[in-house]
Design brief:
GO molecular function: alcohol dehydrogenase (NAD+) activity; zinc ion binding
Catalytic activity: a primary alcohol + NAD(+) = an aldehyde + NADH + H(+); a secondary alcohol + NAD(+) = a ketone + NADH + H(+)
Shape: globular
Family: Belongs to the zinc-containing alcohol dehydrogenase family.
Order of helices and strands: HEEEHEEEHEEEHHEHEHEHEHEHEHEHE
Structural class: alpha/beta
Helix content: 25-40%
Bound molecules: nicotinamide-adenine-dinucleotide, zinc ion
Distance between the termini: 23 Å
Radius of gyration: 20 Å
Number of helices: 12
Domain Enoyl reductase (ER): 29-355
Organism: Alkalicoccus daliensis
CATH superfamily of the largest domain: Medium-chain alcohol dehydrogenases, catalytic domain
Strand content: 15-25%
Length: 358
């Protein structure tokens, strides 16, 4: 979308009074600062909606995108952002279930094919023909974002835009990872990394009836975890967390690793009890090494978990609407994005930063 010649506004857009250009934070080159640019407002096509973005959470994935960290690179130039929420201001032809004024969010799963074996089997996040918001297509670090009407998810009335935004990635991802972990109520689970994802993971875990060990290398993040209900906390800088968890609670049924460092994955694995599951969620661009002998003898499963389906997202939003999960948020302006990225990289952010449009 960025850099394209602007078309004439469609009838719908004239009706809803949408402006012709908008502000967006744009990645032009990996590892360079994002630039705030004036770009054309995208035009809705068939099956699409245009969303006036009110708020967008800043996920560590956006930092990976801006750095080109992963084997599959994002498009450039790129408008990042996959926790964008706002109001529908225009609907394309063939859109019947959404109307102008609806409150929706645009998650990482921007679209999927709808007919492959994964889409048909309720595993749409594995679709090989998916698009990803703020990665393969432009996302929500902007005044407006285009979306596929079938893949946006409505926000419950009782949830504010700012509170809803992080649920569209941090919330749904950790809720789904806990499901993948397969623990039963009353079981112990470990959450590795109490950042944007981890601090909501603690809350989903408590709401799902688990006992929770929180692990992070920053003491203030462990304090946040405790205030959110974590039963035990451990800083791996002080003691090997895998050993601590085996000693204190006999290991965990599910160990959810959201940290962005390789050593955390090793410790998360060692924290698992016999028959339990280590769920990889964080995405450092490194190898995860696991011992074959222990994996076999202890019947430990290692699973990857990638975001969540639209149905997972509806469920994750409902927890937040009922007040069982509340994101710890600081707001910032779009123009502050480079400072926010630097703080995120340095581990200085406690909770989630949400960009708010005036
Ligand atoms: P974040 O930076 O907010 O949180 C990461 C946390 O890990 C920080 O609190 C940091 O202090 C902590 N940490 C660092 N080293 C640690 C260690 N050795 N042990 C324990 N904790 C440690 O990032 P985020 O937005 O929560 O994202 C986390 C990761 O998850 C990123 O790699 C992101 O790309 C990935 N992600 C994956 C999915 C998915 O679907 N699998 C979805 C969203 C994000
Ligand atoms: Zn994300
Ligand atoms: Zn598909």
């Amino acid at each position: 979308m960025t850099g394209q010649v602007m078309n004439n506004p469609s009838e719908e857009e004239k009706v809803s009074g949408v402006q012709e250009t908008m502000k967006a934070a744009v990645v032009n080159q990996f590892h360079e600062d994002l630039r705030i640019e004036e770009v054309p407002v995208p035009q809705v096509g068939a099956g699409q909606v245009l969303v006036k973005i009110k708020a967008c959470g800043v996920c560590h994935t956006d930092l990976h995108a801006a750095h080109g960290d992963w084997p599959v690179k994002p498009k450039l130039p790129l408008i990042p952002g996959h926790e964008g929420v706002g109001e529908v201001t225009a609907t394309g032809t063939n859109v019947t279930h959404l109307q102008v004024g609806d409150r929706v969010g645009i998650p990482w799963l921007y679209s999927a094919c709808g007919y492959c074996e994964y889409c048909l089997d309720g595993k749409e996040t594995l679709c090989k023909d998916q698009q990803n918001a703020g990665y393969s297509v432009d996302g929500s670090y902007a005044d407006y974002c285009l979306a596929e009407a079938d893949y946006v998810v409505k926000i419950p009335d009782s949830l504010s835009y700012v509170d809803a935004a992080p649920i569209f990635c941090a919330g749904v991802t950790t809720y789904k990872a806990l499901k993948v972990g397969g623990a039963k109520p009353g079981d112990w689970v470990a959450i590795y990394g109490i950042g944007g994802l981890g601090h909501v993971a603690v809350q989903y875990a408590k709401a799902m009836g688990y006992n929770v060990v929180a692990v992070d290398t920053f003491d203030e993040k462990l304090e946040l975890a405790e205030s959110l209900g974590a039963d035990k906390v451990i800083n791996p800088k002080k003691e090997d967390s895998g050993e601590f968890i085996q000693r204190e609670v006999g290991g965990v049924q599910a160990s959810i690793c959201t940290a962005v460092t390789k050593p955390a994955f090793g410790e998360a694995y060692r924290a698992v009890k016999r028959g339990g599951t280590c769920v990889a969620v964080g995405l450092p661009p490194e190898m995860m090494e696991i011992p074959i002998f222990d994996t076999v003898l202890n019947a430990v499963s290692v699973a990857g978990s990638i975001v969540g389906t639209r149905k997972d997202l509806q469920e994750a939003l409902q927890f937040a609407a009922e007040g069982k999960v509340q994101t710890h948020i600081e707001t910032a302006k779009l123009s502050e994005i480079n400072r926010v990225f630097a703080d995120l990289e340095a581990g200085k952010i406690n909770g989630r930063i949400v960009l708010v449009n005036e």
